[in-house]
Each structure stands twice: as C-alpha cells, then as structure tokens.
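Build the 3D complex.
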Amino acid sequence: MYDVVQKNAHRCVFLLNLLYNKAMELTRYEKAKAFVYEQFAKIHNEPLRIAAISHTAMVDSCVTLLAITRSISVEKAKIAALFHDYAQYIDNCAHSEHARLSSLHAHQYLSQSKEFKVYEIDDICFAIAQHSKKELFDSPLCELLKDADILARFLENPDKPPTGIRRQRLIDALADIQT
Ligand SMILES: [Fe+2]
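Done.
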C-alpha cells in the first residue's frame, strides 16, 4: 500500500514539473522582447537609452490595444513594435533610414531564431519598413503600427498634438478604441 502511494506521489511530482516547465517556456514575443531590451540596456547615451525603452514600451502597449480592437494578430503586432525604431536607437542612424534599417535588424533576428515562418517574417518586416510613411495606406499590420506609433507619441507628449494626416490617424485610432 505504501509503495502505491509513493509511486503515485512521484508521478504527481513528475507531472507538476512537466506543467511548470511548460508554463515557464518563453513565448516568441517574450524572447524577442528580452533580446531587444537587452540591446537597449547597452546603449551608452542615457537620453537615447531612455527614449529607446520608453517609446518602444509605449508603442508595444498601444499596438496591443489597437490590434485587439481591429482583430489583428497581437503577437505579430507586438514583435513589430519591439523592432520598429530599433536602428534609430542601436545605430543612432539618420531618421530617414531608420525604418528600413530597423526592418533589416528585425529580419536578421527573426530568421536566426528559426521560430517564424517566412510569411510572418515578411509581414513584420514590411510593417516596420513602411511605418514612417504615415501619408500612405498599406496592409492592416502596417496601418496598425503607424497608428500605434502616432498614439504613443501623443500619449508621451499630449501638449504637442499631431497635425495633418497624423492628427486624422490619431482621431481614427481613438475612435476604434472607443467602439
Ligand atoms: Fe520610427
């Protein structure tokens, strides 16, 4: 009798360990997030480091909210947000080049991770490459990232409201959240 109880107890511990390890597995987003913030933490220029972390985190939050309201893949949106300005902060590159270079960095990370399908990498990288072109209309994921970027900038500095197409995008994004 004692043997049976002991055997079942061992089996329970084994199953609990299995469940615990499964729960502790990092998702693809969590791994990408750890990678990006680890790189940001190495930026020596303090204002640039703070901007990298605060703006990326804000875009991540805004894109999550908008992705849910627009029924777009939250995971792809959040990973695009993580990398969308990556080159701006890591390479301190010219603003005119930052979207294209950030998409190349994202492509390198996503390909090397071997956890993403080709079409997922293409969707994410295209959204990053296009995110500066706020006057153009692109795929739903591109539009989501552009609007989240504008909403994030507004929330970071509400005293400086956007104008023109950015203002219209902000109004439309807020309307989406309200519905
Ligand atoms: Fe940007």
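The domain at 27-178 is CATH 1.10.3210.10 (Hypothetical protein af1432).
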